[in-house]
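Hi again,

Forgot to attach this to my earlier email, sorry! This is the prediction with adenosine monophosphate bound. I've pasted everything inline since the attachment limit keeps bouncing my files.
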Amino acid sequence: MAQRVQGTEDLFGGYMRAWQHMQDVARDLFGAYGFDMVETPAIEQVDTFVHGIGESTDVVRKEMFRVVSGALFENLLGQGSEAGLKPKQRLAMRPEGTAGVVRAAVENNMVPQGAASAKLWYAEAMFRGERPQKGRLRQFHQVGVEWLGAADPAADAECIVMLMEYYKRLGFDSSPLKLSINSMGDAVCRPAYRERVRQFILDHADEMCEDCLERAEINPLRSFDCKNDHCREVMRDAPLAKDNLCDDCAEHYAQVKRYLDAAGVSYVEDPTLVRGLDYYTRTVFEVEAVDGGVGAIGGGGRYDGLMELEGGKPTPGIGFAVGFERIALALAAQGGSLETPQPGCVYVAGTSADEREAVFSATLALRQAGVRTEADYQGRSLKSQFKQADKLGARVCVVIGPDEVAANAVTLRDMETHEQTQVPAAELVSAVTERLAK
Ligand code: AMP
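Structure tokens for the complex follow:
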């Protein structure tokens, strides 16, 4: 039997409805904040991610699923390397949403000079070649937002407030959620800070892992979230970004906190929060479900240099992404669920094959009126049609037998009380909708 790829999931039934519910809540809430939906291709040029996420990140170095056409694959097997490929032939499945959305914003000139900012949200599958485990998949789903063209600290605070409201609407109590924030500085203060951290790592070279020594040269800040516990322990004494911010970054960070306080959002400052991707500047944040045991359920930050890295004009930006599968796990750990009940339906039952056409017409009429309607397509007995109707959660059954056909009428059966009433066929839709509204 063919099997799905390890670390991927099929979404169907209640789980699929849960994913749709996450999108519905996002559409309502993010819409109120002025965000429009966007969808970018699942495959992009490798360079889009290299420029944005950073050459030295685990995501780019180890986790991207690379894509080649069949013909190119044959060719590569022959050559044993991709060295001769042009940039447009080097493709990867998107491991995250921001780089692609920013590439799309640049390519489609979504933030013309002097115009309003672009506020976009997406709900998409992401692909990372990680070792699958609970809450860590190779294809997972994220809802995310990107706000391009807003530099003000109020934008950072609005994003965070909106994110926390999103969790609330998905069914989380705010108390078991931990929001951590930090500032990572900008192009003015970060280079000197990076150098201080690099020097710190080199001074502690004998205590750090190979990866961290390599990181010291390419991106020393990543050592703050090294997977190795001992490295993280050593890094506790490393210089902290918050003590190395330039005046503008310090003021920006202070203002973000003032806005969050004014909005009544509680947070903890985590000076070692650096996040896995290189593009962040100034504000970064992450949310964890305290009892979930599934790690971060969302995070984001400001990325003021990213538009330029993707070939656009200097444009500030900020955004976040929330992982569907982890949200579902974290809610389940609290005894909650993202799943919404299947809306109730109406069942149309015929007593024999002779009523097929009348059943067919009644079913169509109800569906055209927007009523979720089911009927029997397997020639079941009336009794088993009623059983099926119960199973589907039907509140009303429309019964059509020879008497009804002769009288140009239908019988409505209340599935709870089993009370039956005959109504003229012409009143089918109004009689059913009236009963459903009760
Ligand atoms: P990131 O882009 O790594 O900040 O991820 C944002 C959110 O996506 C995380 O907080 C998780 O909820 C989710 N996420 C990231 N990686 C995975 C994965 N491999 N499997 C499932 N969810 C993930």
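The CA atoms of residues 349 and 385 lie 6 Å apart. The pocket of adenosine monophosphate is lined by residues 96, 128, 130, 135-137, 140, 142, 276, 296-299, 321, 323, 325-326 (CB under 6 Å).

That should be everything now.

G.
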